[in-house]
Amino acid sequence: MDAVRIISANRAALARCGDGTQVVAEAWQAQALAQAVGGLLARCGPPEARAAAGALHATGVRPAGLAEARAARLTAVRDPRRTLCELAELLDELAATLTEVAAQTEEEALYWHCLEALDATGDTTTSTTALLASLP
Hints:
The protein is mainly α. The protein contains five helices and no strands.
């Protein structure tokens, strides 16, 4: 499945989230997808972008126990520029949503999970932007 379709699925799932725990789970889904996109582009992407793609692959983190990552269905990145732009937008949406959940929750554990996911999202956004800049 093409990366843009999976990003759209992530966006739809984020929109359906009913609570903060689900938002955090979607953040980790996005991390797994970023890692997979980076890995695929590091192997098969434009030669001048492969180093930055490898950095994205290394930045994308996935906590143990992530059930059924959508990223496992990734088979193609047909349009790297569009994919990375869409991924960056998804990551921005996640950052805003995670910040909102963290600010509103009274559960300490959820607060820290949001911050951990927010930190990872920030790192991934930085790597995604660098990869986008390296594309021809």
